[in-house]
Amino acid sequence: MEVDESYFGPRRVKGKAGRGASKKTPVFGVFKRHGKVYTEVVPDCSKATLLQAIRGKVSLDSIIHSDGWGGYDGLVDMGYKKHLRVDHARNEFSSRRVRGNHINGIEGFWGYAKTRLARFRGIHPDTFLFHLKECEFRFNHRRHDLYKVLLLLCREHPLS
User: Fold this and answer.
1) For residues 66 and 55, what is the distance between their CA atoms, to the nearest angstrom?
2) Taking the CB of residue 79, how many other CB atoms lie within 10 A of it?
3) Which of 34, 44, 33, 25 is nearest to 3 (CA)?
4) Which end of the chain has fewer beta carbons closer than 10 Å to its terminal beta carbon, N or C?
């Protein structure tokens, strides 16, 4: 399982402290390799918030891959089987020490979602979650015919 956080919103404003994240919406994501992605808008990217989100979506026998963000400290202490990190601070995007240790899957989803949402040239904050979940749905069904998937969903769950 790959976990990561990202910020959605206007471009970074020069002179802003930290990650340039003022007026940006923090989003947390979980990606199961060769599987699906799950996203969640979070109030912040603190350790308590991220660990709670992980605990709700990832089983304890999973191997978790993440970046070096301090919010992921303590996953093994919570009972997770293994926690491997990629150190972006050292320009590392795939670990040289452990084969298969990367978070390229979730990073690829962030790129997909941000590119797709940038086409709108701004989204009202009230509808951001709907747009994000649409990106999640499209990404999870990228190898399927969306028309057939939606038709099947409408048959299984009719509106009336």
Assistant:
1) 14
2) 9
3) 33
4) C
Q: Which residues pair with 6 in a beta bridge?
A: 27
Q: Give the residue carrying structure tokens 């912040």.
A: 44
Q: Are 65 and 94 in contact (CB under 8 A)?
A: no
DSSP conformation letters of 104-148: HHHHHHHHHHHHHHHTTT---TTTHHHHHHHHHHHHHTTTS-HHH
Q: Residue 64: in which H helix or E strand, if any?
A: strand 63-67
Instruction: Report pTM.
Output: 0.80
Q: Provide the residue type at 42 as one letter.
A: V
In order along its 160 residues, the chain shows pLDDT tens digits of: 899 999 888 766 666 655 556 678 899 999 998 899 999 999 988 888 888 888 888 888 888 888 878 888 888 888 888 888 876 555 555 555 665 677 888 999 999 999 999 998 888 889 999 999 999 999 999 999 999 999 999 999 998 7
